TrEMBL record:
SUPFAM superfamilies (UniProt xref): Calcium-dependent phosphotriesterase
Name this protein carries in UniProt: Adipocyte plasma membrane-associated protein
Main location, first listed in the record: membrane
Membrane topology value: Single-pass membrane protein
InterPro entries with a match to the protein in the record: 6-blade_b-propeller_TolB-like, Strictosidine_synth_cons-reg
Location relative to the cell: Membrane
Source organism: Colius striatus
Top-level division of the source organism's lineage: Eukaryota
Organism lineage string: Eukaryota, Metazoa, Chordata, Craniata, Vertebrata
A GO term, aspect molecular function: arylesterase activity
Length: 386
């Protein structure tokens, strides 16, 4: 009797599964997909071994100003005063532990996905030679902010077409020591910051590296065809700019002076995660924060989906970006690169227990300050203790 009931169960189950699957597939075919994904070929991620061996060093970090900040993406300091830009559109100063809003580029209300374009989203932030702040707002453009008075001055507006293309997603910037040139990234002319997951999943290659001359006020396009160009950093000798290409898990190098000027090559290929911001380290190398990890050994969702556009279409026909982000593992990773791009050391927090969604590692005075595009705090890691 049991084999008979087992058979009945199996047949019933399969019939039920088929009756549900067929309409679901039908509906899925009819639904619109917000993205038109392109197949992307990534190499097998590097093994997390040697200097990349998983550890829990990031768990030694302390959380500062918890629940007093919203997504402090990028961090700079003037002396011991810290500055950051937050998800509620503010540019914030932290002095002697006190938090103060010094400027806003957009205006409220803030807090929802719909509000973001008017609220503004300050991302990359840098200190210029006269201790002014240069800020890249994802929606509004490139600004100079006086940290004393909070006065803001627009340098490049996203309303201006650059070589016939819109600036839809200003991301990061790096400034020469004399303050003359600002190199900045526009991650896409199609997608905005609030749709960054669409940008990654579609594999859109309309990102650019641009240069703004503060004297002539001219904007030049230096690189095109980038897939989600993100963090940028001038080399200590200011002869090249490094550009993190997030979707491709790599760092490109563009030469701004010397014999190679105007040329570009690969600095680091096939990284163990998706690189977000990049900053100088005191040893002459670079700190790279990973916004997501590509575990090896392990399962990397990004790599699995990279050459399967049809699965991506199905996912985004049925699920919102917010829902999909919940499936991204909360693994935090910061790597230090040497001046030639080899891995020097890596700090991990495997489940994002202490430091989650790390977007930048900013070194100051023996500490590594970790910015985050989503967490309500800044983490500080004592480099003597790792």
């Amino acid at each position: 009797g049991s084999t008979y009931s087992g058979k009945v169960f199996r047949v019933t189950f399969l019939a039920l599964a088929a009756s549900l699957t067929v309409p679901l597939l039908g509906v899925t075919v009819l639904l619109d997909c917000p993205i038109d994904p392109q197949p992307i070929s990534l190499k097998e991620p590097p093994l997390l071994a040697g200097v990349l061996e998983p550890n829990t060093e990031l768990r030694k970090a302390e959380r500062l100003w918890e629940n007093q900040l919203v997504g402090p993406e990028s961090i700079v300091n003037i002396g011991d005063v810290l500055f950051t830009g937050t998800a509620d559109g503010k540019i914030i100063k932290i002095e002697d532990g006190e938090i103060q809003t010094i400027a806003r580029i957009g205006h409220g209300p803030c807090g929802t996905r719909e509000d973001e374009p008017t609220c503004g989203r300050p991302l990359g932030i840098r200190v210029g030679p006269n201790n002014t702040l240069f800020v890249a707002d994802a929606y509004y453009g490139l600004y100079e902010v006086n940290p004393g008075t909070g006065e803001t001055k627009m340098l490049v507006s996203t309303k201006t077409l650059i070589e016939g293309q819109k600036l839809s997603f200003l991301n990061d910037l790096t400034v020469t020591r004399d303050g003359r040139k600002i190199y900045f990234t526009d991650s896409s002319s199609k997608w905005q910051r609030r749709d960054y997951l669409f940008l990654i999943m579609e594999g859109t290659d309309d990102g650019r590296l641009l240069e703004y001359d503060t004297v002539t006020k001219e904007v030049k396009v230096l690189m095109v065809g980038l897939r989600f160009p993100n963090g940028v950093q001038l080399s200590p000798a200011e002869d090249f700019v490094l550009v993190q290409e997030t979707t491709m898990a790599r760092i490109r190098r563009y030469y701004v002076s010397g014999l190679m000027k105007g040329g570009a090559d690969m600095f680091v290929e096939n990284m163990p995660g998706l690189p977000d911001n990049i900053r100088l380290s005191s040893s002459g190398g670079y700190w790279v924060a990973m916004s997501a990890v590509r575990p090896n050994p392990g399962f990397s969702m990004l790599d699995f989906l990279s050459e399967k556009p049809w699965i991506k279409r199905m996912i985004f026909k049925l699920l919102s970006q917010e829902t999909v982000t919940k499936f991204v593992p909360k693994y935090s990773l910061v790597v230090e690169l040497s001046e030639t791009g080899s891995y020097r050391r890596s700090f991990h927090d495997p489940n994002g227990v202490t430091a989650a969604y790390v977007s930048e590692a900013h070194e100051h005075d023996g500490y590594l300050y970790l910015g985050s595009f989503r967490s309500p705090f800044i983490c500080r890691l004592n480099l003597q203790h790792v």
